[in-house]
Design a protein that fits this description.
Elements (H helix, E strand, L loop, with lengths): L2 H14 L2 H8 L3 H15 L4 E3 L4 E3 L1 H27 L5 E7 L1 H18 L3 E7 L13 E7 L6 E7 L2 E5 L1 H7 L7 H6 L1 E7 L2 E2 L3 E3 L4 E3 L3 E6 L2 H9 L4 E5 L4 H6 L3 E2 L5 E3 L6 E7 L7 H14 L3
Parallel strand pairs: 3-4, 3-5, 8-12, 8-13
Antiparallel strand pairs: 1-2, 5-16, 6-16, 7-13, 7-14, 8-9, 10-11, 10-15
Length: 302
């Protein structure tokens, strides 16, 4: 039995609770994953997984075994990757998870330039608002918006992530309200609301003393920034978006920032930004170091 391979398979099955998902990740049949894990269980003389037609669950002994072996497997994989690249040009796969709008507007064009310099490197790009867990999910680099993370990873701030309330001049003229808008006027206007992984994202209003949630008159909800932008450009309401995502439309005058008496944001208080995340140990791998440094050099703002 190839115990190292069996341990790698078991580690991911324990994390994903799915033979099918692990098989897709390793590009092998699900039956091979199941057989390798079964061989591992037989060699140990214990049941690590409980299998049924609907789901896979980790047993108590399986959880204990996972906690004692997962870090070793992860370090072994990183060691293999580091040594294999020490004496040759950087090559191989780099897995990046990034929030969609930022990835489409800023990261994708930059990685095209990087790929021209290092053609042997292959990117696996996952654009999603779902939060990747470095060290657990198959991700080398993550780019996320929000507060500085407190998890045990290196976080480099790329830029601010300030939100602004925005609409077309035509929509604002049609409101028939006095400007700057007060809290009640904002709540009565048509809101174009973004849906995150945990549901629609609330807006908050700062009256000079404290933040409070707004009771929105929602006109549209979407997890797609382009759909919300299209609705806004068609004068269907106003939306609260990162300023970096609509620079061109603000400069052209198609969109304007809505004058308000108090500040409106989706993240009340705190220091929010766009952060590049990676594990310290992976920075030793040449391809990861090159990519991290390249992204920071071109996207990091002072």
């Amino acid at each position: 039995m190839d115990k190292i391979r069996a341990l790698r398979y078991f580690k991911r099955v324990a994390e994903l609770c799915s033979f099918t998902a692990v098989a897709e990740e390793f590009d092998v049949p699900a039956s091979s994953i199941s057989r390798r894990v079964r061989d591992l269980e037989q060699s140990l003389g214990v049941e690590l997984l409980q299998r049924s037609t609907r789901k896979v669950e980790v047993t108590e002994l399986g959880k204990l075994y996972y906690s004692m072996t997962s870090e070793t497997i992860r370090q072994l994989e990183q060691a293999d990757e580091l040594v294999s690249q020490t004496f040759e040009a950087p090559s191989g796969l780099i897995r990046i998870s990034c929030l969609p709008s930022y990835g489409e507007q800023h990261l994708t064009p930059l990685l095209e330039e990087f790929a021209q310099r290092y053609p042997k490197i292959v990117f696996d790009l996952h654009y999603s608002d779902d939060l990747a867990q470095l060290g657990k999910d198959p991700v080398d680099i993550a780019i996320r918006g929000g507060y500085a993370p407190d998890e045990h990873v290196i976080a480099k701030r790329l830029s601010k992530n300030e939100f602004s309330l925005t609409a077309t001049p035509e929509y604002l003229n049609a409101l028939g309200q006095e400007f700057p808008l007060n809290k009640q006027a904002i709540e009565s206007a048509q809101a174009l609301q973004y849906r995150g992984p945990r549901g629609p994202i609330d807006w908050h209003y700062f009256d000079g003393d404290h933040w409070e949630p707004l009771k929105l008159s929602t006109h549209m909800i979407s997890n797609n920034g382009k759909a919300l932008l299209a609705a806004a450009l068609n004068h269907r309401g106003m939306f609260c978006v990162p300023s970096w995502s609509i620079c061109e439309h603000l400069e052209s005058g198609e969109l304007v920032q809505v004058p308000t008496q108090g500040k409106v944001s989706v993240s009340p208080g705190g220091d929010i930004g766009i952060f590049l995340l990676y594990e310290r140990s992976k920075y030793q791998i040449p391809k990861i170091k090159l990519c991290v440094d390249f992204i920071c050099e071109h996207l990091q703002q002072n």
